[in-house]
Amino acid sequence: MQNQFSRTELLLGREAMDRLLCARVAVFGLGGVGGYVVEALARSGVGALDLVDSDRVALTNLNRQILATYETLGELKVDAARRRIQAIHPQTVVRTSTTFFVPQTAEEFDFSQYSYIVDAIDTVTGKLELAERAQAAGVPIISCMGTGNKLNPAALEVADIYETAMCPLARIMRKELKKRGIRHLKVVYSREPPLELVGTPEANAQGRPAPGSTAFVPAAAGFIAAAEVVKDLTGVRTSPR
Fold first, then answer.
1. Which of 21, 30, 100 minimizes the C-alpha distance to 64?
2. Domain CATH code at residue 175
């Protein structure tokens, strides 16, 4: 019998679809990357999604974030995401949190409940904390490195953090993870060297110069991360090239 996931089931099989239905995936960060992660996971049939983001949709999000439209400007991203997920698959269990994830707020989350964690946040301290919490709970995690100041989505790849190169954020993460005794971390990252900006950037929410970004690099990173989640949860792998 056909259902909305019939085309996915043709590739993955019924047993894999049941695994996705029973999974609970936490997505930390619903920006340019995380929004597309949520989109793909909802359309893949993941049964429960935990969404964590404290931000509201802003005008400068419109160029690259799937949750950002003129209708959602000023809205909490978690609320926009919940409504979008329910429009795609009303049976998905959606839990939301507007907590700004940093080490000081990590105790608000029970990581043992998750089947998988997606790190799509911007702060190094938060990313490191997620990696530590995931390892302690024995929960798989994929961490998204920087997509700002990049133009080539074909340069994105999946690797262990200690095999990365050319990514400034990954370089910092490697150093700090080593200090914490974390020997492995699956990441999505780009080997494309960051481009020089043409104009003078304004400060972002963290007070740092805002990076340039496009509609396609963050989206590609989000879809790649979501694909890894689906493959890891189901055990179905793509054929080698």
1. 30
2. 3.40.50.720
